[in-house]
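Please produce the structure of this protein holding manganese (II) ion.
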Amino acid sequence: MIHFDSHTDTYGPAFGLVCHAGSGFRLGAEEGLIDPKRTVQVGLNGPVASFDQDNFSRDIGYRTIPLLEIHSRGINATIAEIRRVIGSGPTFLSFDLDVLTLSDAPAVANPEAGGLTINEVFQMLVGFRGLDIVGGDIACFVPHLDPSLVTAIHSNAIMHHVVTLMAEAVAKQKAEPRIAVLAQSVG
Ligand SMILES: [Mn+2]
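Below is the modeled complex.
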């Protein structure tokens, strides 16, 4: 899982609810749907509500890359680190628009000061070429806050990049089928 977000979304129960907008990456790991060793959370930049709010991510083994680390490492070194964690297995790319700076994505549900620029995100997405991207989603778009269409245009471009990565992965798989698929057809 490559998870772009200002927030880890691995928070515990809130207001008596276990399943809420900020708990998906906790529940996914607990239910065995997400492989923690092959998960990276990119661009974390949210407010600190408590000092242990992101402990779940670290304790379960997610690689967390805060926004400040991205800007101190540089984009190319960040791409290399993400690729190291992800490896060659099937990968889902989840993109919360609030990881973008507000000038590039004003219409988001949980706005934060600071963030990646759309050009930095494009550079990273192109840098994922060759990974086995099997799916993706874009979260937290609030259309009625987007009269300028900036957020919609950027969402569209991000999804186009992700679908292109998926198409390339399918083409690569057809050329060299995954070992598991090969074993299945032989068995
Ligand atoms: Mn978020």
